[in-house]
Amino acid sequence: MLEARTACSGATGRNGGHTKAKSYQAFLDNVRDQGEEEAAKIARFEYRNVKAVHAFAREHNIECDSWEGDTGDIIYDTSRWNRAQKAVSEMRRILGEEDAAAQYKFHDASETAEKFLTEGAVGSVSYEAGSISAYKFFIGILELALMKGLNLQTDTPALEISRSSRWTVKTPRGSIEAERVIMATNGYTAYLYPPVKGIIVPLRGTVAAQRPGSRMPKEGLKTTYSFIYGNGYEYMIFRPPGSTYAGDLVIGGCSTKAQGEGLYEWGTTDDTAMDPEIGQYVRDSAANYFGSQWGEDDPDGRIRKEWTGVMGYSSQGFPLVGMAPGEDNLWIAASFQGSGMALCFLTAKALVTMMDGEDGERMSDWFPRAFRMSESRLKHKFRGKLHEKAPMDLELKAGCEAQPEPQECTIRS
Fold it and tell me: How do residues 326-383 score in pLDDT, each as one tens digit?
């Protein structure tokens, strides 16, 4: 396994760790584009993925601040409120009233203000979710893999992949030959595999860890949050009891609040810098959402730490998983749409199942067809983030056409 920098230094270790499926938000689009059966499969996959992450942490005693409970989607836009109700109604019809993936509760404006301490919302949706330290979780998995014989090479970026009789991966430290190669490279995949240039597009996201205001509950918040408006959203978790900086808030998103709805963050692969306009919005957002419930900032300051990370988005709003078309034993698992906590874990299981030649009827029962890599998916150019805002024409943006720098590459012999 090759890491361009230190272990888990990319977006996996930088995300807020919100284990949340939010399947209703894309469900109507998935029914329209994929059909009812496939839409149901996607929703169940996301729910089971979230449950599997926490179950794996428990089973293997990985100390990763794992917390399971409820989340609240605080909705400020009437059209999105109406669409949420329609989507959940369709989920209950198609999946069944008792299906675990279709369990949602709606709260009107007054209930939302009382339950979630927020101001000005049209209403809210609550459902099962959780949070985890993605960095600690993945490092725990790496430790298990190392004990089983994984060869991990850090500070070793993959520079080029080529094939003669076997695959060759070029690095600054020399080349590696392998029968099989996995590109677990998300937003950076086009650098190593040019056919996905313009198909998988990077997006830089911004996150901040904040000390809560003086009027926020002393015992800490009881749920995680998303704040949903017309053309975007923010997500927020709280650091659970017993964790470092328990009670702190970790909030991310906000890219559409920048000039031009943050268009310039698409195609950006520098996670060492932060856009000042987006950064300021992130710093202010929690206090703005809680309004009078926030109070005064902590004497040590509101912001404990802030950072960025690079995600990967595809034209159809789904991951690309499987063998690269026409490339024997070049495998890909990438483009997780900023929702890796609800997609990655079981996607890895699916990919290895494919590699082991067991990709039959049993797997088709649980792994969505829409996620599979295919020649046809390479024909769909990226034209904007789906399910959250109107599509944008990004094809003229030079950054989206550029090949991003390499960050992570997994090699499996």
Answer: 999 999 999 999 999 999 999 999 999 999 998 877 788 999 999 999 999 998 877 6
Residues 42/23, Cβ–Cβ less than 8 Å: yes
Quote the CA–CA distance of 384 and 171 in Å, as a whole number: 33
Overall size of the chain counted in residues = 413
Please tell me the distance from the alpha carbon of residue 251 to that of residue 230, in angstroms, as a whole number: 18
Distance CA(203)–CA(187), nearest Å, equals 7
Is residue 242 a contact partner of residue 306, using CB atoms and an 8 Å limit?
no
* Residues 316, 374: Cα–Cα separation, whole Å: 13
Q: Which residues pair with 412 in a beta bridge?
A: 180
Q: Are 31 and 39 in contact (CB under 8 A)?
A: yes
**Considering only CA atoms, which of 145, 193, 194, 133 is closest in space to residue 167?**
193
**DSSP character string of 191-208:** HH-GGGBTTEEEEEEEEE
**pTM of the full predicted structure?**
0.92
For residue 384, name the pLDDT band (cuts at 50, 70, 90). Answer: low
Cβ atoms 200, 377 nearer than 8 A: no
Task: Label residue 247 exposed, middle or buried (CB < 10 Å: 0-12, 13-18, 19+).
Answer: middle
Tell me the pLDDT tens digit for each residue of 277-328: 999 999 999 999 999 999 999 999 999 999 999 999 998 899 999 999 999 9
* Helical residues (DSSP H) of 308-386, grouped into ranges: 344-355, 361-364
Half-sphere exposure of residue 6, counting CA atoms within 13 Å on the CB side?
5
| Helix H or strand E encompassing 85 | helix 78-95
Q: Which of 257, 413, 244, 408 is nearest to 333 (CA)?
A: 408
Tokens (6 digits) for 353: 């199942």
* Structure tokens given for 390: 């109107």
Distance CA 165, CA 148 (A): 28
Distance from C-alpha of 100 to C-alpha of 92, rounded to nearest angstrom: 10
**Contact (Cβ atoms closer than 8 angstroms) between residue 319 and residue 24:** no
- Quick one: tokens of 86? 């329609």
